[in-house]
């Protein structure tokens, strides 16, 4: 009888071999994903699309992430793992080699992130080309629909209010807290108008890996949005050399005056997602960012 790890290994091997055309000669579990060694010497990462807890079928998650990786790669700016294969249930990408953060790598990341954002998007909320409207951020559903703007209207309608309601529905936030956020957020200054940027969309520090040649971003929730949202998300849990990243970004493509005053507004979205998924003190933190 196979144990759980053996069953998982067997379940992973078939789709990896089918999608890459190469035999798997070794596997290693990395939590929610599996790292596989192929018979041609390459290392790949396989991710199942059936881990979501509710909502659309598994093909939605795989299709959204694959389209997001390809869209970010098309900017030829920030490094992302190449998509080697995808179907309704599985995504296979290049594995990221181990490296370490450094000031030089952080400067390069800041410049490349500015270039990726500058590559643009058709509209706020637009999905990557070929990607589904029903996407995901972590284990939370995320709807991507093009919006005429302005940015704050889209952000409140499509990012703030849906996740505040989801947090309330899941018992992670009180109705009073949600009402305070809804009352406050529309009155905040969003800064000057900017065109839609090409966002990673879930750019917390765990999705920034440091390879031998610099930063590589993984697990995108890509869409058209405001570039300050990606930058604010980097600061939610901290990032090595973050100030160096920001300075290099600002030097490459200057940020609008007062951008630091708007960090809380842009962090509201990821904090609400965390409140809906994990509860804890995230609801209080979300309220504090805007009140």
Gross CATH architecture of the largest domain: Alpha-Beta Complex
Number of domains: 2
Order of strands in the sheet with most strands: 1-2-3-5-4
Radius of gyration: 19 Å
The CATH superfamily of the largest domain is Aminoglycoside phosphotransferase (APH), C-terminal lobe
Subunit organisation of the chains:
single chain
Strand-residue fraction? 15-25%
**First and last CA, distance:** 57 Å
Q: What is the succession of H and E elements?
A: HEEEHEEHEEHHEEEEHHHH
Give the helices and strands, then pairings.
Blueprint: H1 4-20, E1 24-29, E2 33-38, E3 43-48, H2 58-74, E4 83-86, E5 90-94, H3 103-118, E6 134-137, E7 140-143, H4 151-169, H5 175-185, E8 197-199, E9 208-211, E10 214-217, E11 223-225, H6 227-234, H7 242-252, H8 263-278, H9 282-290
Antiparallel strand pairs: 1-2, 2-3, 3-5, 4-5, 6-7, 8-11, 9-10
Helix pairs in contact: 3-7, 4-5, 4-8, 5-9, 6-8, 8-9
Tell me what you see in this structure:
By secondary structure, the chain is α+β, with helices and mostly antiparallel strands. The chain folds into two domains: 91 residues, Phosphorylase Kinase, domain 1; 188 residues, Aminoglycoside 3'-phosphotransferase, Chain: A, domain 2 (Alpha-Beta Complex), CATH 3.90.1200. Helix content is 43%, strand content 17%. It contains nine helices and eleven strands. Strands 1-2-3-5-4 form a five-stranded antiparallel beta sheet, with helices on both faces. A two-stranded antiparallel sheet has the order 6-7. Strand 4 and strand 5 form a beta hairpin. The radius of gyration is 19 Å and the shape is globular. The N and C termini lie far apart (57 Å). The N terminus is likely disordered. One of its GO terms (molecular function) is kinase activity. This is Fructosamine kinase family protein.
